[in-house]
Design brief:
61% of the residues lie in helices and 11% in strands. By secondary structure, the protein is α+β, with helices and mostly antiparallel strands. It catalyses: ATP + protein L-histidine = ADP + protein N-phospho-L-histidine.
């Protein structure tokens, strides 16, 4: 309903016209049903139904996107004319005209500015009053317009103000999102060129370095490689945010070696241990797996307490990667929200690490959860079994 050619929800001229088409189609159907209750006015009621269905057809089929954005407001004017004819057809009974008039005003308030709602006041009042005058209704009935029209206009103004505020907020969020996406793309792209230069310089130094220098240069090379992968990860996560999809390059890897390689990026003085069966083979994207594990270990070292224990096991549900710390733990009410964007954060970070873990786990077809331990907490990521 939202994405097809007859989309009803949304904003813009096409959505406005489609919604009006639905209103007129319902009004036409009610007029047809009205012939069963009042056979004497069958001809007039069928004329009303024909007019309503004609407006519904126009609202559905015209290429409204090519016209002015306020063009569908003309459907409202035509609707007031049909409302007046409908009141006359029912012999001056406005029981159905009043509510539908307010409904038309509410529809217009969702899509058009206040000046159009004000311009509607005269034709709407005439559409309501003239049939009552022509059919000789008493002054008390005529006086109902003095109550109905201000109410219709007030309701429309309230809806228009709220709709305008929501549109402004949506536009503001859209601009923020565009700025954020541009910033991430720029950061990820611009960091590659200087990083490549640093990496090449370190490789040249590594060829002649010996002893402690070689060890330090090797560590620096590993970290520059990691930063490059993080830049690629930023771009991938931006694609996840905008399209919801991330292409993976999955293959079979020994879990023991995967974990061991990732932990070489952890500082030497960190109390991190791993318990992984050397015979376990997992089916993952190696680069994304490294991002997942590195984020979890870094998070455990930053917010938890030593020792940090990395485990990898298999059961009927899949392969389970767990990173447990022995810190103070996490409150029960916070654990379900840990993997949201900016869920935690603070002075030491912005709260994106666990959100990245969840996105990458979902891309693999798995999930990420936080499980309570005594003491501490375990971050658990599940991966589907190898095919």
């Amino acid at each position: 309903m939202q994405n097809g050619p007859f989309r009803l929800l949304g904003t813009g001229p096409r959505a406005a016209a489609r919604q009006a088409a639905v209103l007129f189609a319902v009004a036409g159907l009610l007029a047809v049903i009205g012939t069963l209750n009042d056979p004497a006015r069958t001809g007039r009621l069928l004329t009303v139904a024909g007019c309503d269905l004609a407006l519904a057809t126009i609202g559905s089929l015209l290429p409204w996107r090519r016209l002015h954005r306020h063009a569908p407001a003309l459907l409202g004017l035509a609707g007031f004319v049909v409302l007046g004819f409908s009141t006359w057809s029912f012999g001056g009974v406005a029981a159905g005209t009043g509510p539908f008039l307010v409904l038309l005003y509410a529809w217009a308030a969702l899509h058009f500015p206040r000046w159009i709602l004000t311009a509607y006041a005269l034709p709407a009042t005439l559409a309501y009053l003239l049939p009552l005058v022509v059919t000789g209704q008493p002054p008390l009935v005529l006086g109902s317009a003095a109550v109905l029209m201000p109410i219709a206009l007030a309701v429309a103004f309230l809806i228009e103000a709220q709709a305008r505020r929501l549109r402004d907020e949506r536009d503001r969020l859209s601009r923020i999102e565009q700025w954020r996406a541009a910033m991430i793309n720029t950061l990820a792209h611009d960091v590659r060129t200087p990083l490549s230069t640093v990496h090449m310089a370190l490789e040249e130094l590594a060829e002649t370095a010996t002893g402690p220098d070689a060890s330090m240069i090797g560590a620096a090379l590993r970290q520059t490689t990691r930063i490059a992968r993080l830049a690629d990860g930023l771009l991938d996560l931006q694609r996840i945010d905008s399209t919801g999809h991330l292409k993976l390059d999955r293959a079979r890897y020994p879990a023991h070696l995967l974990v061991k390689d990732v932990l070489t990026y952890v500082r030497d003085d960190a109390d991190v241990r791993f318990e992984v069966d050397e015979d376990l083979t997992v089916y993952v994207d190696k680069q994304r797996f490294e991002q997942i594990l590195m984020n979890l270990v870094t998070n455990a070292l930053r917010y938890g307490g030593p020792p940090v224990i990395v485990g990898f096991t298999r059961d009927a549900g899949g392969d389970r990667l767990s990173v447990r710390d022995h810190g103070p733990g996490i409150p029960d009410d916070l654990r379900p929200r840990l993997f949201g964007q900016f869920a935690v954060g603070g002075d030491q970070g912005v709260g994106l690490g666990l959100w990245i873990v969840r996105q990458l786990a979902a891309a693999h077809g798995g999930q990420a959860v936080a499980e309570a331990r005594d003491p501490g907490v375990a971050m658990v990521v599940t991966f589907p079994l190898p095919p």
